[in-house]
Amino acid sequence: MPTSALLSLADVRDAAARISGICLCTPVVPVVMPDGTVPLRVKAECLQPTGAFKLRGATNAIALLEPERRVRGVVTHSSGNHAQAVAYAAARAGIAATIVIPDNAPAVKVEATARWGAQIVRVPPAERETAAEAIAEETGATVVPPYDHPDVIAGQGTVGIEIAEQVPDLDQVLVPVSGGGLAAGTALAIKALRPQVRVVAVEPELAGDLAEGWRDGQRRVWAASQTARTIADGLRTTSVGLLNWAHLRAHVDDVVTVTEEEILSATATLVRGSRLVAEPSGAVASAALLSGRVDPSPGTVAVLSGGNVDPALLARLVAP
């Protein structure tokens, strides 16, 4: 993909102006260990109105819809967090939304999506994208992709702008990755504003398509049955998007993976150490540092990307 297709910092700044008033500028919070040390800080995207960073990209994409498209509504496919984001952003914009959700998505995320008045369609994981496209063809609704779209990437990139402005001693940013919208946008913004800062994308070992492709220098696609194995249900996408891949190759310094045990341990550590609710997907970036997969540094910030966790799972993890 030519470099001319890449977004600029100006695109992300424009998105920041559009989403202001709907999306929060979330705080950066220290994670305090039992011995009193602070190995990292987290960008608390779990505090967004829908509980995850996805609201940024969805809000920006919907804000840019032309009037004739708005009357036909929007449709998307998502395992949960993007689903909630599109449902919420559409409700705020006063337009209809249809959400295609894999039938293995956590009930807590499905219920939260329905809360915003969207129509829910459940399908097997491998059929979610084609089902959304079929609905768009039939109804004229606009597809709001979960990650592979410039408006979505620009919206997610506002996380990077905020981190760069909030953390004077920033030297390393850890970002979870699945489809790659958050990692692509955040890396773009960080490198534009603080080029010396190291940006590392983190994904589950059981959904490690990007790590494999990173080693080989070529984007990889895994089977849905492979990525479905991870507890990090928000990171089960089978590959990063095409546009996302180009941004990641341009702006990310490294890609690492973490195990299921490391993800669950980090989820509990974040709850205890930061007093923030984290879902496993949201804890993946922190897991990379807490497990020693990346080198510690005093200016490390990990994106805690979401907190929409099954209460029963959370209770088991934090129980003494």
TrEMBL record:
Entry keyword annotation includes Magnesium: yes
Domain Tryptophan synthase beta chain-like PALP: 38-306
UniProt-listed Enzyme Commission number(s): 4.3.1.19
Gene Ontology BP term (one): D-serine biosynthetic process
Keyword Cytoplasm: no
Origin species: Mumia flava
Domain of life: Bacteria
InterPro entries: Ser/Thr_deHydtase_PyrdxlP-BS, TrpB-like_PALP, TrpB-like_PALP_sf
Family the UniProt entry places it in: Belongs to the serine/threonine dehydratase family.
Keywords associated with the record: Lyase, Magnesium, Pyridoxal phosphate
Protein name as annotated: threonine ammonia-lyase
Function: Catalyzes the anaerobic formation of alpha-ketobutyrate and ammonia from threonine in a two-step reaction. The first step involved a dehydration of threonine and a production of enamine intermediates (aminocrotonate), which tautomerizes to its imine form (iminobutyrate). Both intermediates are unstable and short-lived. The second step is the nonenzymatic hydrolysis of the enamine/imine intermediates to form 2-ketobutyrate and free ammonia. In the low water environment of the cell, the second step is accelerated by RidA.
Gene3D superfamilies named in the record: 3.40.50.1100
Pfam families (UniProt xref): PALP
